[in-house]
Write a structure and sequence with these properties.
With 172 residues, the protein is of the alpha+beta class. The chain contains three helices and eight strands, in the order αβββββββαβα. The model has no long low-confidence stretch (mean pLDDT 95). It binds zinc ion.
Length: 172
């Protein structure tokens, strides 16, 4: 297990357009393994390569439906529909939450760690996470598209509500 340092807002690495991955080699596999370890350690929902200082188009996201981590190399959104508004945070903007509008449903085309193409579908939180991480690859943070920051009380209320909904979902 190897943890990488997460860079924070203000670092110019987060404002750069990342290059496509062209070599699906051991170096890429190490990067993806380290990103997943780093994400788990930070209890995050997604991480993009530039957040660990690597300007390549690779992300890892938590898929809500089965709570697994999915690696997406060279991801591209090929369909987005609907709209949702909710709280969004970023490991590179620690301790803050913003109110952000995102599509409710997305389909992303990407390659796996061996270069094989696949598609991933996401709704709700997973769709939000995919959009957020792909924005990182284009040098954008959610703070550029949010309506406003949430107060601590608002963020707390939002997460309590979401935890209750999740609990209810399990019981039904
Ligand atoms: Zn982020």
């Amino acid at each position: 297990m190897a943890l990488r340092t997460i860079v924070e807002e203000g670092d110019s690495v987060l404002q750069k357009n990342c290059r496509p991955v062209t070599k699906f080699d051991r170096r890429l596999h190490m990067l993806l393994d380290d990103m997943t370890d780093t994400l788990i350690e930070a209890s995050g929902a997604g991480l993009a390569a530039p957040q660990v200082g690597v300007l390549r188009r690779a992300i890892v996201v938590l898929r809500e439906s089965d709570e697994s981590f999915v690696e997406l190399v060279n991801p591209e959104i090929i369909l987005e529909e609907g709209e949702q508004e909710g709280a969004e945070g970023c490991l590179s903007v620690p301790g803050k939450w913003g109110l952000v509008k995102r599509p409710e449903h997305v389909i992303v085309r990407a390659q796996d760690r061996n270069g094989d193409p696949f598609e991933m579908e996401g709704t709700g939180l997973t769709a939000r996470c995919l959009c957020h991480e792909i924005d990182h690859l284009n040098g954008h943070l959610y703070t550029e598209v949010m309506e406003r920051f949430l107060s601590d009380e608002e963020a707390e209320a939002y997460f309590e509500q979401r935890a209750e909904e999740k609990e209810r979902g399990k019981q039904e």
